[in-house]
Design brief:
five-stranded mixed beta sheet, globular, alpha/beta
Length: about 300
């Protein structure tokens, strides 16, 4: 099986230097069509601090993020903070026992087609369409039976990165289930126009989408496990300095969502030219087509 690292190293250096803007979306899977939990930050080359992009209304909707992204035609590298696909390699199916696609792109279309939730939501996917696969509370039995992970997540954990979340666990503040399946609906929509790494090759021009994990940026900035959420101006500036970024423009509110987006956009700019990030040694063609990979996990 092809190793992406072997292939990518042949031409990655010539491609990854073209990005001219860097953005991060802190995402939300909440119900409804206006989400205080969504934040979009963007920065230019150099060392100016990322700035928040104001939503068209009071809060961003998921569809408004999709519309904004589809309107960009420059060399933008943008990271989304959700899992781009469920695990498949370890169990042979995204939803064992159910008749579902076995590659990510077709699965995104399946999720989008089966969900009629407003604003690209996907709560019905978990709560009705494939309910038995998701842990929604004690009534579902032993939570450990739902803890299935992608190859990327297992590698991140084994290398000391920490225990990741699984898209099958829909309980608690740290859960990524609803956000991820909502995100897959967005990927189905925008992925017809914008390449999504590693499901697609690195773009030679125009926007490029990657999956990110904001805690990776926080660790790289020196924030300790369990203390990675920034809620004040001084802490944000200290973290930004680790990525050679100037201090940020003061915010009206220092929410986790805003500071995560700002810091991770600066991190993307700082690491985007590192070929190792685009060619992880554990990534192969099957993983790239089915599960994807989190940018920054090497």
């Amino acid at each position: 099986m092809d190793n992406i690292a072997d292939i990518a190293q042949q031409n990655v250096g010539a491609k990854i230097g073209h990005f001219t803007r860097f953005a991060c979306v802190d995402w939300s899977g909440a119900k409804g069509d206006a989400h205080a939990g969504i934040a979009l930050a963007i920065c230019e080359p150099g060392n100016a601090s990322p700035v928040l992009v104001a939503p068209p209304r009071r809060y961003w909707s998921r569809q408004a993020i999709a519309d904004w992204l589809l309107a960009q035609n420059d060399n933008l590298l943008i990271g989304f903070d959700f899992s781009f696909a469920p695990p498949l390699i370890a169990r042979g199916s995204y939803l064992p026992g159910d008749d579902v696609p076995a590659d990510a792109r077709t699965f995104w279309g399946y999720v989008d087609g089966i969900c009629d939730d407003p604003d690209l939501g996907a709560a019905s996917f978990l709560e009705r369409h494939h309910r038995r696969h998701f842990y929604l509370g004690a009534i579902d039995g032993v939570k450990a039976q739902y803890m299935h992970f992608r190859q990327c997540e297992m590698h991140y954990n084994a290398s000391g990165g920490g225990k990741p979340s699984t898209v099958y666990d829909a309980i608690g503040a740290a859960q990524v289930a609803k956000a991820s399946f909502a995100g897959m609906r967005l990927l189905h929509q925008v992925g017809q126009h914008i390449p999504i790494w590693p499901f697609d090759p690195i773009s030679s021009s125009g926007p490029q989408i990657v999956e990110i994990y904001t805690q990776i940026a926080a660790r790289a900035a020196g924030l300790r496990k369990g203390l990675s959420k920034i809620r004040d101006a001084k802490s944000l500036d200290g973290a930004l300095a680790a990525f050679n970024s100037e201090p940020h423009k003061p915010l009206t509110k220092y929410s986790d969502h805003a500071t995560d987006a700002i810091l991770t956009a600066a991190w993307l700019r700082y690491v985007s030219r590192n070929p190792d990030y685009w060619a992880p040694t554990q990534l192969n063609s099957r993983i790239a087509a089915t599960e994807g990979w989190t940018f920054g996990v090497v």
